[in-house]
């Protein structure tokens, strides 16, 4: 019988183990639930991974004497947080996309450390995450110069910023959306993107497979992470 | 018109500031929780930064952008990815999508093309 929620499982499991240790009763082990189940819905999986990553990041920041709070920080204080969170020094992580963009990141920050623990290999995860996150950008780059797209974009630009009029400082996003519909830009892009995304996904099947594999492993690690310890009352621990 | 003005502005800026010489080993100074765009490559020159969306960047930075950094802070349900577009209100192509901690020091194809960005939970 599996437990219904992960947080409950996290609380009950250590309690059951402690009870087994205290009573010396070995038979209780057979009644222990297996590892908590990984949620099947994509949104729940995303939430689980984000919660786990944030948990690992916060633990790491605490270890470095920094906290990522929502309160405004003085510039020097924020630079200390940036350094601890995002890292400093050479950018050891680097991937050049087919679009020409070289996406980089530091490998010595708490964010990198958290992803290394969660995904098992931050270099592999960085590589496939950047590629998979930019499949749409790559597809769009491939159809950007398609004559049908250029023509539709020109009609859209004229529609949102008619020539001879000063450029509005805050054009209405509703107007931009209406123009995208009425000039056929939406329809043209949807058609071209469908075709190009199929191509791009085929080109990157290896990265997509690794992405799924590392994500699945991260989900299994995330459900096993212990519940966060409540923040200490009063002063931070010395 | 806008692009012509931006190109002229970029040309003037190049004349007055010269080439960007910032070393790639320097950490980008971008407030935590913000998305930052610089006029020069390698996080140099004038910087624009936003904690929210901007459907049409101000004229001094639109189409003069040369490097980008996402210093968003992740958490459950937080929009922490940034999608950068080459036209206002996401009208044109998405040039790049960055997760927190990711940066682009220079991109020949996207250089001086950015006009808008949105934060999203994914790409």
Features:
heterodimer, A: 238 residues, mainly alpha, 2 domains, two-stranded antiparallel sheet, 10 helices, 2 strands, 61% helix, disordered N terminus, B: 123 residues, alpha+beta, Gamma-B Crystallin, domain 1, three-stranded antiparallel beta sheet, 13% helix, Peptidase inhibitor family I36 (chain B), signal (chain B), Lipoprotein (chain A), signal (chain A)
Summarize the structure.
Chain A is mostly helical and 238 residues long. Chain A contains 10 helices and 2 strands.
Protein described:
The complex is a heterodimer of chains A (238) and B (123). With 238 residues, chain A is mostly helical. Chain A has two domains: 37 residues, no CATH class; 187 residues, no CATH class. Chain A is built from ten helices and two strands; from the N terminus they run H-H-H-E-E-H-H-H-H-H-H-H. A two-stranded antiparallel sheet of chain A has the order 1-2. In chain A, a hairpin with a 5-residue loop joins strand 1 and strand 2. Chain A is globular and about 65 Å long. Chain B is built from one helix and seven strands, in the order αβββββββ. Chain B has a four-stranded antiparallel β-sheet, with no helix packed on it. The interface between A and B is large, with 60 and 47 residues. Strand 2 of chain A pairs antiparallel with strand 6 of chain B, so a sheet runs across the interface. Chain B: It comes from Streptomyces hydrogenans. Chain B: This is Peptidase inhibitor family I36. Chain B: Keywords: Signal. Chain A: Keywords: Signal.
The percent of residues in helical segments of chain B reads: 10-25%
Amount of beta strand of chain B: 25-35%
Mean pLDDT across every amino acid position of chain A: 83
Strand content of chain A is under 5%
Helical content of chain A (DSSP H or I, runs of 4+): 55-70%
**How many domains make up the 3D coordinates of chain A?**
2
User: What does the main sheet of chain B amount to?
Assistant: 4 strands, antiparallel
**SS-based structural class of chain A?**
mainly alpha
Described by the principal axes of the CA atoms, the overall outline of chain B is globular
Which structural class do you get from the secondary structure elements of chain B?
Answer: alpha+beta
**How many distinct beta strands of chain B?**
7
Q: Give the largest chain-chain interface (CB within 8 Å).
A: A-B, 60 and 47 residues
Overall pLDDT metric of chain B: 80
- The CATH topology of chain B is Gamma-B Crystallin, domain 1
Shape of chain A: globular
């Amino acid at each position: 019988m599996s437990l219904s929620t992960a947080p409950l499982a996290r609380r009950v499991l250590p309690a059951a183990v402690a009870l087994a240790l205290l009573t010396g009763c070995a038979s209780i082990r057979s009644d222990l639930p297996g590892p908590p189940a990984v949620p099947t819905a994509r949104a729940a999986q995303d939430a689980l991974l984000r919660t786990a990553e944030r948990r690992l990041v916060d633990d790491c920041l605490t270890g470095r004497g920094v906290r990522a709070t929502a309160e405004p920080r003085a510039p020097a204080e924020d630079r200390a947080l940036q350094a601890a969170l995002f890292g400093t020094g050479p950018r050891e992580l680097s991937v050049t996309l087919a679009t020409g963009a070289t996406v980089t990141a530091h490998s010595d920050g708490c964010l990198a450390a958290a992803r290394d623990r969660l995904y098992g290999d931050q270099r592999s995860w960085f590589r496939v995450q950047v590629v998979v996150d930019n499949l749409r950008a790559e597809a769009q780059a491939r159809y950007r110069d398609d004559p049908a797209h250029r023509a539709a974009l020109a009609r859209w630009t004229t529609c949102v910023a008619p020539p001879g009029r000063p450029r509005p400082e805050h054009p209405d996003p509703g107007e931009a959306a209406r123009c995208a519909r009425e000039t056929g830009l939406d329809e043209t892009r949807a058609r071209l993107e469908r075709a190009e995304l199929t191509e791009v996904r085929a080109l990157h099947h290896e990265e997509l497979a690794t992405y799924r594999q590392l994500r699945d492993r991260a989900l299994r690690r995330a459900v096993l992470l212990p519940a966060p310890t409540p923040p200490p009352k009063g002063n931070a621990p010395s | 018109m806008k692009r012509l003005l931006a190109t002229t502005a970029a040309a003037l800026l190049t004349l007055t500031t010269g080439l960007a010489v910032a070393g790639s080993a320097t950490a980008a100074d971008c407030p935590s929780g913000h998305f930052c765009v610089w006029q020069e490559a390698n996080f140099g020159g004038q910087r624009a930064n936003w904690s929210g969306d901007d459907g049409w960047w101000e004229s001094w930075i639109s189409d003069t952008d040369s490097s980008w950094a996402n210093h968003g802070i992740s958490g459950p349900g937080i929009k922490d990815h940034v999608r950068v577009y080459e036209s206002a209100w996401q009208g044109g192509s998405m040039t790049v999508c960055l997760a927190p901690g990711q940066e682009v020091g220079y991109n020949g194809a996207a250089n001086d093309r950015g006009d808008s960005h949105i934060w999203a939970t994914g790409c």
